[in-house]
Design goal:
Helix content: 25-40%
Order of helices and strands: EEEHEHEHHEHHEHHEHEHHHEHEEEH
Family: Belongs to the IUNH family.
Organism: Coffea arabica (Arabian coffee)
Shape: globular
Structural class: alpha/beta
Pfam family, one: IU_nuc_hydro
Keywords: Glycosidase, Hydrolase
Protein name: Probable uridine nucleosidase 2 isoform X2
Length: 354
Amino acid sequence: MVRECYIPYLHLEMHFLKCANESSRSIRAQVDRVKVEFELEVKISNSLAHDAMAIFLALQSPEVEVIGLTTIYGNVYTTLATRNALHLLEIAGRTDIPVAEGSHVTITKGTKLRIADFVHGTDGLGNQNFPPPKGKPIELSAADFLIQQASCYPGKVTVVALGPLTNIALAIQSDPHFVKNIQQIVVLGGAFAVNGNVNPAAEANIFGDPDAADVVFTSGADVLAVGINVTHQVFFTDADRDKLAESNGKYAQYLCKILDVYYSYHHVAYSTKGVYLHDPTALLAAVTPSLITFTEGVVRVQTTGITRGLTLFYNKQKRFGEVTEWSDKPSVKVAVTVDAPAVINLVMERLTNS
């Protein structure tokens, strides 16, 4: 439950917000009690099918407490992402968790958004056309909600950003203390040394608002980027889906209903019999950091031209003589490998036992 802070300022693309209370279990030996926020795009910026899996997985993870969802455009527009987030919380019986609606435009006020509704269906949830949720979003915007929570619990909130980074960038620009107050920002985004999934250069979440992504990566916050170079290592097969369907888990049964469009997209786009678990992998990287390995360096984002959305990594092994746009920029963490079998096992265990 989110506690009142009475701070005028205070961020699920989709983002999820996770906040640990005094009785919460540590998720790392060296870190005492964390609050994690997921940005619902549902991705959750948009509440989409794979975002739904990540949200349910978070709700089934005893290591953390989800304290809020924020929404952003991506696979659907922001308004529909908010509706889907509220719907998923009703399905989960967790209407106590607040939903804050995010930006409807990019950080540069761009209104020509890339809405990839062919990935999860026009409703973002497998074209199931569920009835409208009863709940409503809170009055605070996603950016203000992020600022508020980071201010209430300095050093204890982790944002898991599953969509374009507009809301987080707005929080960074609005509050000079946000970068220091937030514990970590786990970004599902980027294609490091591999092709993108929007075009050969760009991954979808970064492509959605590359200017915002560059703000986040160069902000000085503790950022962990989990790109498709890693999430494509985690493959959920048709056989895995069949196991979900055979279980009695509430979340497992719901997900099996909404995943048809996502599976069909992968069959056509990648010629695969299964799907990549992008969002659940990013979520579990926040919950159980030992599942991944990472390198550190500067990340910049190309914001124009045919490589718009390209994530570029500088490992700082060479010192350049000239002062450039790369000079004196802070390092971030970039995931390199993941224990894919362990991720699949955790997903199956927690969803089938829901």
